[in-house]
Queue: 2 jobs
Job 1
Amino acid sequence: MAKQQAFRYNTGATRVPWAAVGENYNAEDLYEVVKFLMQGEGEEYEAALAAVKKEIDKLDEVSYPPSNLSLGPKVREAEAMVNEYLGTDSAVFLANCTAGFVNAYKYANLGPGDEVIVPAITFIATMAYPLEVGAKLVFADLDPKTLNMDPKDVERKITDKTKVIVPVHLGGYPVDMDPIMELAKKHNILVLEDAAHAFGASYKGRKIGTIGHFTGFSLHEVKNCTSFGEGGILTTTIPEFKDYMIPSRFFGVDFSRKIPNWLYDVGAIPGKYGPFVAGNSSTTEIQAVGLIQQMKRYDKILEERTNTAKYISEKLSVCDAIIPQRIGEDDDVVPSFHLYLLQIDPAKAGGSIQTLKRKLEEKSVTNIPHFGPLYHFDILKTFGYDAEAIAKTCPVCEDVFNNRFTHLPVYGLSMEQIDYMIGAILDSIAEMQRGE
Ligand SMILES: *Cc1c(COP(=O)(O)O)cnc(C)c1O
């Protein structure tokens, strides 16, 4: 087909193209993708699949392959949609959220001796790079209301070595960003927001992604929005770094400049304190297609999450031993409701969250204790962190984690499942109160 002129390596309108890839994908491959994405069984399913196969086969005759499989027009289209949605102009689509964090940490020229303040409860991805390069992790205690980092404790833990503060919007509930940004400004510290859960959330009328110096969003399959299972978005508010967001995704390769006798130049990326070497966190065009489709219905996804969370909070409000998920109005925030954060008052509930979690499990309600105090992990011990000593500096976190907090699913559930879950929680607390 004529359109195959769009060579993957754009070496000009040559008679001999550089088709530097393996066999192009064909109808058989597309059929396998359809079969994978839309699984099923039974006669009806098999018949529908056979009909699809017949039609897909015809495409072999009449179609031509895409011009790019990696970092092409679909990636740019997905980024444009994300920028429009977030109100940003810097979004890059990367292999995952963690890769975005790495680029932001590299911008900070993070290394041994530097300190990074992270919340006591998060996922290991927040802090893997600082650990890797030998920076020191400092754990901020939590605000018991939101379970996010407490800006007052962040302030207490800032030293002249603090280079980065990493607010994590746990469950999609925005961190109180104003005091964090003020501290950052006062002490010349970089703010990297871990917004893995917070795509679409806002803080005081500003979308998350437009506040901190960098913000990373996850598109992993368990998050609010995905690009076929893996992916991430990084945004920046640093004007002079915007032009380096794309080169820092791929080795600093710069096609706008060439060294003699070659196609391009490779540049070091200017960080805050000096140049750094960019790695590779590229995404594929297929992932971009996945993201574009999710973006088209993201408003609906968020609406369902929001409605479900509000419904659960309302129904649980009959029980004064339960502290329901905050809905956001009191704090002038709009959460993205990635998780439903449930807290109890153990004195009123007649027991701790561990009892409630066990009872919910017995009643067949999912219990995935995924987010906990990271300083208890073996990897931190291995690198010289003293969990006991750190725990003493995070008393709210210890109490919340051991006695008060769990999280519930809030998406993709039927009304019947939601009502069952609410009933199971209320019944379990009533049992605990009766000493059962
Ligand atoms: C999922 C997650 C990440 C990492 O996201 P990836 O896209 O898998 O790299 C980071 N932080 C938190 C809090 C997460 O839950």
Job 2
Amino acid sequence: MKLLNRREKEREMRAAGRLPDGQSLTEKFPVLTYGPTPTFDPATWDLRVFGEVEEERRWTWEEFLRLPRDTITVDIHCVTRWSKFDTTWEGVMFRDFARELKLKPTARYVIAHCEFGYTTNLPLDVMLDDDVMLACKYEGHWLKAREWMDHGGPLRTVVPKRYFWKSAKFLRALEFSAEDKPGFWERGGYHNDGDFWKQQRFQRRGIF
Ligand SMILES: Nc1nc2c(c(=O)[nH]1)N[C@H]1C(S)=C(S)[C@@H](COP(=O)(O)O)O[C@H]1N2
Ligand SMILES: [Mo]
């Protein structure tokens, strides 16, 4: 078996139509966090759902772990131009999670709220795609483990069809909203939609 080097793998991915323009393949897993990494305490952690739902709800860590989980293998693309292929995540599919809720017909956007105030926004129909996950494991490792916490422990969203800033680490709440509410980087000038096939990187001058 021939081991491909990084450039050869990159060429393969480009030929296979899996490398969006302006991206290059990485074999590392860079950590990109604005601000600190939180600590995780399973006794106090919760995941809240609020906004345009018939009933606001809250899951403790123990309760969240009782939800049925799946595994996905997807490519991720960061707006800082790295792409990582065939990453495997385990967690609760957002679609299945949404079925646990009674969404009001006015719910059109999902705002992910994270530790320390990071937020990111997407339309509900984008979030309801069949590959969107609330992920608690990466390559079999619990994100809550000390060595993996930087990647969004204990829980993050994974939205494979958008630039990776739309995949919210350290998730604590999902807000269903009638109006769009641009998140942290979106207010800072990043594109509101973030589709990497369209190179939707920046949209306007940010407020930073
Ligand atoms: N809460 C939170 N989520 C976040 C970020 C962040 O700073 N805080 N950074 C985003 C960006 S810009 C990217 S590219 C990915 C990086 O995820 P990684 O550190 O696991 O590579 O997380 C996204 N989610
Ligand atoms: Mo990013």
